[in-house]
# Entry
Amino acid sequence: MGKVQVGIVQMTCTAGKHENLQKAIAKVKEAAKKGAQIICLQELFTSLYFCDVEDHANFLLAETVPGPSTNELSKIAAEWGVVIIASLFEKRAQGLYHNTTAIIDADGAYLGKYRKMHIPDDPGFYEKFYFTPGDLGYKVFKTKFATIGVLICWDQWYPEAARITTLMGAEILFYPTAIGWANTQDEATNTEQYNAWQTIQRSHSVANGVHVVSVNRVGEEAGVKFWGGSFFSNPFGSIIYQASHNDEEVVVQELDLDKTDFYRTHWPFLRDRRIDSYSPITKRLLDE
# Structure
């Protein structure tokens, strides 16, 4: 497995789709110059987070995947020899849309996509208005540098998704994200929410013995302060690096994938799983 250099891009966005894409490309190049081999962009990085309202005009932001954005990113991936993880608003057909992440290998080849499985619907996060739940199942992608699993934002809260993706062979779990605090909330609530968000993802590292890389946006949009705080955790949940809550950042961290075997050997959670007892988890709720 060995070591891999992983880059993250935490940035603000504007209403200009082309400008956001070009900004992301510039930051991908910056990460590549710092030695990154795999680079993850935040959720829906080509636009503002439009799900704060239910507005049919926002469907015009969608595109095919693969399509215009992946075509441009494929050129950059091939030029710089990097893997790019790109979260996009996918137009699958007329009236059918997904929250989708495309994976582009270091030679520019499009490896495939993952469609967000868990779709939230909360004040300021009206994603069910826009996105059909994913129907491709959980996915792993064998890139030049590592076999990676990609889940998206709200998927973060579900240990089942992390477990399945890991069992499929993911060596790193990536979570492109767009989440923040309402400006009306007090500091204690903000802190509690961020800590819960980070803790649940760190627990995926611990339970599965893999690195987790979570990439969030920053900036204020429509009454929400996106909390940034992108981070890397090792296979036992320790924070390797945590980004600012306020600033744009391009960060590259070396991940030692051999640590997975070390932690899984010393803390053999996978060995001791009682798969014969887990069938009740497929039910919505169990009768008393």
